[in-house]
Every structure is written in C-alpha cells, then in structure tokens.
Design goal:
Blueprint: H1 6-60, E1 96-98, E2 110-114, E3 122-127, E4 132-136
Antiparallel strand pairs: 1-2, 2-3, 3-4
C-alpha cells in the first residue's frame, strides 16, 4: 500500500477536518465564554477599587461619600481613567450609576451599578459595604 493511496488521503482529510472542528470550538469557547468572564471580573475589580476610594473619602469627610466620582481624583485615585468603565472592546463608555452623591450610606445601600454591555448581559453591582457581585441585568 502506497502512502499516496486514496485511503491515506481520505484518512488525512478526516484528520484535518477533526482538527479544524476542534480549533473552531476552542476559538468559540475563548470568544463566547472565557473572555466575557474575565472582562466582567476585571470590571468588578475596578468597581471595587473605586468603592474602596469612596469609602476612604467618606472616612475623611465625616461619613459623607463624594458628591461625584471625579471628586476622588487625585487624593484617592491616582489615575482618572479608573473612574471610567469601558466596554470589553474599549470602544464605548458604560453608564455608571453612582449613588453616593454626598450622602451617608448604610452598608447594604447600592453604591455603584455598572451597566451591562448588551441587553440581557451582566451588570456589576457594588454596595457601600464593599460587597460586589455580577448579576444578570434586567431586560429593558
């Protein structure tokens, strides 16, 4: 039997097809599952660092949180970009609902809500107690 026989060519094409399917599945898993997960975790860490800065501000100001997030710069955050939440591709600024507004907050009060990138996606929530979570955004 020659290595150039039609049976060997068929086996090679089958192997190439199987490898191509696994490569496509790996790419899809990375794009559809893994990257969004890490982007959300990164956004949660960013929101928690902003919440810690808000808490430090409140401790220095008799328990009152900053009137707006830019008040944290430069004394509580060294880089103003930390106060802006961007989409995963960096092309869009996500809406940040900040509830501090110069008020005193109870620990269970909502401090920050970062909008989901797309309808039905996941949003980031941080409470004044520095509890943070990722939850499914309500449908609009």
């Amino acid at each position: 039997m020659s290595i150039f026989s039609s049976e060997n060519q068929i086996a090679r094409w089958k192997l190439i097809g199987v490898v191509a399917v696994f490569l496509c599945l790996g790419w899809w898993l990375n794009v559809a599952v893994i990257q969004p997960h890490f982007i959300l975790k990164s956004r949660l860490r960013q929101a928690l660092s902003v919440a810690v800065a808000c808490r430090m501000y409140a401790e220095d100001h008799g328990g009152s949180y900053p009137g707006e997030l830019p008040d944290l710069f430069p004394n509580y955050v060294s880089d103003e970009r930390v106060l802006t939440f961007r989409s995963g591709d960096g092309q869009r600024i996500l809406k940040c609902d900040y509830r501090g507004g110069g008020k005193r907050l109870t620990p269970d009060a909502l401090l920050l809500r970062i909008e989901a990138e797309k309808s039905g996606g996941s949003e980031v929530i941080v409470q004044a107690s520095l509890n943070g979570l990722i939850q499914k955004a309500p449908e609009e």
